[in-house]
Amino acid sequence: MYKVTLIPGDGTGPEITEAVRRVLEATGVSFEWEIQNAGEDVYHQEGNPLPDRVLESIKRNKVALKGPITTPVGTGFRSVNVTLRQALDLYSCLRPCKSYAGARTKYSNIDIVIVRENTEDLYAGIEYQKDSEGAKAIIDLVKNISGNTIRSDSGISIKPISVFGSERIVRFAFEYARKNKRRKVTSVHKANIMKYSDGLFLEVSREVAKKYPDIEFEDKIIDNMCMQLVQKPELYDVLVLPNLYGDIVSDLAAGLIGGLGLAPGANLGSEYAVFEATHGSAPKYKGLNKVNPFAMMLSGVMMLRYLGETTAAENLDNAIASTIKEGKYVTYDMKPSPDDPTAATTSGVADAIVSKITRQ
Ligand code: NAD
Question: Is 1-93+263-360 in CATH node 3.40.718.10?
């Protein structure tokens, strides 16, 4: 029996987490779910979108399965997702993007693993609003120490990238590559322009790479990387990236395999693990029982593997793969046209997977 914190999230989160809970239970592995709400509604009810009880539950159980949570754009509360990763020091975001036969995409045989740094960079949350005391102080400081002028009507976001943060994420990428028999790690950066932040990430990547002579290493500038991924994705294997580039390239890689509905993820630290899809809360579909639960189900597969439940993980992965291949019980985004009347519902997909697993 595994005790796992279950965060349904908001928007379409509760529908897809329910679908995942059902298929995980169908594998025969026993779970006791500790349900913890967080997000927009909790913010309105409790004044905090991520109450301490949620973090305490994850600290107790060490493992969580999490639905997506909405972040207001521009104003409002800070991202619960980012805060959670920072508060639990879930420094590594692991996002495998693998082709499933039958998924509608221009590409085949994609097998790329994104390793995104999860705690630093422009995501650190160190920001100063236009005209604030902080923004004014930084503008003065920069003027004094470097003579550079920042326009007085600027908002400012700080981009810290440390040796400590870079070293542990690059090491994680190489260890993952070694353990999973991958051939190459590509470090992605913009070190030609941001010499002291991305430059440091690259320098540390090169140092760490020397300790893994069995794995090929290369680096790529982020803009070139994006083009290469679209043109020749088969050349790439494990990518390690600072936080923001990792976020953007994750969606790009999801596009290669047929969309966000198929891209799972895990946020991992040295003590805790939180499994969640790459996609967000898709709020326009909230309550419609419509969105694709596969990305969250595949995050569930990752959780089973993390727990050492390899057979259950294989069974669930196989059931998902064969359902995608058959193309019948799949949601609108995986049909030839988004208004295909034969599209399955979120819960309909879960029904199909449950019956497949229990027949296996
Ligand atoms: P999104 O991922 O929710 O949606 C992007 C597009 O993909 C939309 O067209 C959406 O309908 C579609 N989509 C997403 N998931 C899908 C699924 N399972 N099945 C079918 N289609 C799916 O991204 P967004 O619209 O930029 O963000 C919506 C909200 O989610 C924002 O508040 C954002 O901050 C938040 N968000 C949360 C997380 C997280 O919880 N980790 C991650 C990304 C975005």
Answer: yes
Q: What is the atom index within ligand 1 of the atom nearest the CA of 66?
A: 40
Q: Which residues contact 113 (CB under 8 A, 6 or more apart)?
A: 94, 95, 96, 97, 176, 180, 182, 237, 238, 239
Measured at the CA of 92, the angle between CA 90 and CA 94, to 5 degrees, comes to 125
Stated pTM of the model: 0.95
Domain boundaries, the chain: 1-93+263-360, 106-112+161-257, 121-159
Domain 106-112+161-257 has CATH 3.40.50.2300: yes
Smallest CA-to-CA distance from 197 within 240, 243, 228 is with 243
- Report the pocket of ligand 1 as residue ranges, CB < 6 Å: 68-71, 81, 260-261, 276, 279-283, 285, 291-292, 295, 333
- Rounded to an integer, the average pLDDT of 152-174 is 98
Rounded to whole angstroms, the Cα distance separating 153 from 139 reads: 10
**pLDDT tens across 117-161, in order?**
999 999 988 999 999 999 999 999 999 999 999 999 999 999 999
Identify the burial level of 348 via C-beta atoms within 10 angstroms of its C-beta, where 0-12 means exposed, 13-18 middle and 19 or more buried. middle
Q: What percent of the chain has pLDDT over 90?
A: 92
Distance of CA 128 to the CA centre of its chain: 26
| DSSP sequence for 6-36 | EE--STTHHHHHHHHHHHHHHTT--EEEEE-
Rounded Cα–Cα distance for residues 16 and 290 (Å): 9
Whether 1-93+263-360 shares its CATH topology with 106-112+161-257 is answered no
Best probe residue, ligand 1, of 75, 252, 260 (max atoms within 8 Å of C-beta): 260
330-347 per-position pLDDT tens digit: 999 999 999 999 999 999
